[in-house]
Amino acid sequence: MMQESGTETKSNGSAIQNGSSGGNHLLECGGLREGRSNGETPAVDVGAADLAHVQQQQQALQVARQLLLQQQQQQQVSGLKSPKRNDKQPALQVPVSVAMMTPQVITPQQMQQILQQQVLSPQQLQVLLQQQQALMLQQQQLQEFYKKQQEQLQLQLLQQQHAGKQPKEQQQVATQQLAFQQQLLQMQQLQQQHLLSLQRQGLLTIQPGQPALPLQPLAQGMIPTELQQLWKEVTSAHTTEETTGNNHSSLDLTTTCVSSSAPSKTSLIMNPHASTNGQLSAHTPKRESLSHEEHPHSHPLYGHGVCKWPGCEAVCEDFQSFLKHLNSEHALDDRSTAQCRVQMQVVQQLELQLAKDKERLQAMMTHLHVKSTEPKTAPQPLNLVSSVTLSKSASEASPQSLPHTPTTPTAPITPVTQGPSVITTTSMHTVGPIRRRYSDKYNVPISSADIAQNQEFYKNAEVRPPFTYASLIRQAILESPEKQLTLNEIYNWFTRMFAYFRRNAATWKGAIRTNLSLHKCFIRVEDEFGSFWTVDDEEFKRGRHIQRGRPRKYCPDENFDELVAHNPSLIKNMQSSHAYCAPLNAALQASMAENSIPLYTTASMGNPTLGNLASAIREELNGAMEHTNSNESDSSPGRSPMQAVHPVHVKEEPLDPEEAEGPLSLVTTANHSPDFDHDRDYEDEPVNEDME
DNA sequence: GACCCGATAAACAAAT
DNA sequence: TATTTGTTTATCGGGT
Question: Where is this region: Disordered (predicted)?
Fold first, then answer.
């Protein structure tokens, strides 16, 4: 039962609801997941008394409904609110407790007591009404099933009468009843423990004088076939259970068999894979207790002679000693309760993580499947941030990039409602994975859940994010409103988003600087206020590095903004860029003409961003330069038209050094600016020294 | 085993 | 002068 609680307890607030679902259904009339999970009710024993109980309960609920409605009307008239109206937990406590204590035969008087407490909210009233409806449905089901079972029993009796006395059959039936009674008692015990635990946790308030009946209401929503199945399970195990002996034969089977279905329902975790050979998973309290008897060494808390209670590890020589130990050391006390709660959280976290990972896997599979069936396309154009937190980028987000977000189902799980700096589901989905070869050329959009789901995790846990520096830098830049960040801002983003980068600053800061310098996709731009970094997403997808030992800088042209006018991320760059584009274009065209390279013009390139332009030029030059001699290129300061212009700004020349090699340099020499600061670059070039 | 790539460290230079 | 910023290179480890 604790496991059940742990799997559903999301918080303290919901723990109440959990408690209600776990122990009672007055407020939790749904419970289908649990309700369909292997209850043990042997429906064959549904008796008339059970139906009477159901009817009684229904009547009580009807009375309660009337009373509640009256009270609600009174409250509406008087404006009286429950003092605990806004306190969800206490507001739910009393009904839960009362309902759990008197789940089966909640009388009108009791219900009236509940009402007199004035702690029922309209939601609770609604739940009660739903509960009543569920009870009615359940009653019908039970009636049907009861009839069937009665018929079967009569048939059996007739057969026995005709075939003479069959002691074995009778014994079997008796054994079944015995086994079932035992299970009922076990479930009652478990539930009682659960109730006590809830009490201790302050989740329940038991009215003095109210019988703390652990019995549960009917298994709502349980259909006869399920009951039959459960009964089959029970009867299949009776042969082993009957040998264990029990003293519960005095238990009123006909009354408990109905009510006991609820504990089975609420305490069991639906796990269709946990059942083997018709056996329920040992996760169920009932099955646990059964398994203790059937398989003494299969107790979840006992293994290898050691008590597996969290934090215990006490050595128990045999199962009996373990049981003694369990009862003595892990009795129901505050410590055990606290440990149970911890375990709940552990299980909850694990299940949460499992669910996330499952979704991630599904998204990955979906994505890969889609991708494998799709014709391989070029990298998505500017598959940039489409986060809702970035209105600018959202508006820029290419619709084509959306198919690359296959994990949209994960979005509701981790809704991102934080500030602009938050890594969002969509904003991070293009972050390339760290140390992955496939990210070299194509930064394949990874599962959108990767960071979004772990965003808080990375913020708080000193766990290295599984992304490259380049990917993170890019993300930082793209998340910025203007798609540009200073180095210090990038630092801050790292420290803000990742706890891992809150230490060893020298290391990762150096790595950032190195990456900024090394990757072609990062473009350094200067203006009168300083320098900042932008990202060329196309180049990022190419994942190329700037060639070592090659000149890297070029100088923007004053007309450069015409080229990048359609790239909002470079607006600021353009504003501060001067004397850039005209020489660039001229030099480029000249160079390309020299190299028989298809001429790129601004118009021919559509809406080129700086990156697109540079990338396109690079692409063309790449092919062209592969056939050229590289010896002369670097020696010429003007070998790259973009290098020929300087003023300050952009770090990166749009031409690969290797790409710029060759005749191109000859053409562009004239454009060399006196203040071109790449002299240093060339000085480092052995091949250039000759030319210099 | 070769190769590629990312991370890291270090040296150096320029700018602040 | 110290710090920050930027560049470059070398090396290492992991993956292909």
Answer: 1-43, 267-298, 389-421, 626-692
Residue A615 Cα distances to A391, A521, A611, A649, angstroms: 26, 9, 6, 18
Q: Is the CB of A509 under 7 A from strand B?
A: no
Question: Nearest residue to B13, CA vs C1'?
Answer: A680
Tell whether A514 and A636 lie within a shared domain.
no
Nucleotide in closest CA–C1' contact with A549: C8
Distance A453 CA to C6 C1' (A): 34
Structure tokens of A330?
């892990």
Domain endpoint, select from A247, A275, A303: A275
How sure is the predictor about A123, in pLDDT bands with cuts at 50, 70 and 90? Answer: low
Q: How many Å apart are A184 CA and B4 C1'?
A: 66
A488: its two tokens? 């210090």
Q: Which residue is nearest to nucleotide B6 (CA to C1')?
A: A435
Same domain, A564 and A652: yes
Please state whether strand B lies within 7 Å of residue A36 at its CB atom: no
Is residue A487 scored above 50 in pLDDT? yes
Residue type at position A325: H
Identify whether residues A374 and A262 lie together within a single domain.
Answer: no
Do A498 and A576 belong together in one domain? no
Instruction: Read off the pLDDT of residues A678-691 as tens digits, 9 standing for 90 and up.
Output: 333 333 333 333 33
A469 CB less than 7 Å from any atom of strand B: yes
Report yes or no on A633 lying in a domain: yes
- When divided into structural domains, chain A yields a total of 3
pLDDT digit string (tens) for A387-446? 222 222 322 323 222 223 222 222 222 322 233 333 333 333 344 333 433 333 334 433
| Distance measured from the CA of protein residue A470 to the C1' of nucleotide C14, in angstroms | 18
First to last CA, chain A: 82
Q: Is residue A302 in a domain? A: no
Domain that holds residue A360: 354-531
Q: Are A643 and A556 in contact (CB under 8 A)?
A: no
A527 and A661 belong to one structural domain: no
List the A509 CA – B6 C1' distance (angstroms): 15
Is strand B in 7 Å reach of the CB of A647?
no
User: Does A595 lie in the same domain as A493?
Assistant: no
Q: What is the pLDDT of residue A513?
A: 92
pLDDT-based confidence at residue A510 (cuts at 50, 70, 90): very high
- Nearest-CA residue relative to C1' of C14: A435
DSSP state letters, A632-676: TTTT-TTSSHHHH--SS--SS-SS-HHHH-SHHHHHHGGG--TT-
Q: Are both A480 and A553 inside the same structural domain? A: no
Domain assignment of residue A540, yes or no: no
Mean pLDDT to the nearest integer, A317-324:
82
Query: CA–C1' span, A505 to C3, in Å?
Result: 15
* Residue A627 CA, distance from chain mean position: 51
Determine if strand B comes within 7 Å of the CB of A548: no
- Domain identity same for A559 and A658: yes
Residue A323 belongs to some domain of the structure? no
Contact indicator for A496, A403 with CB cutoff of 8 Å:
no
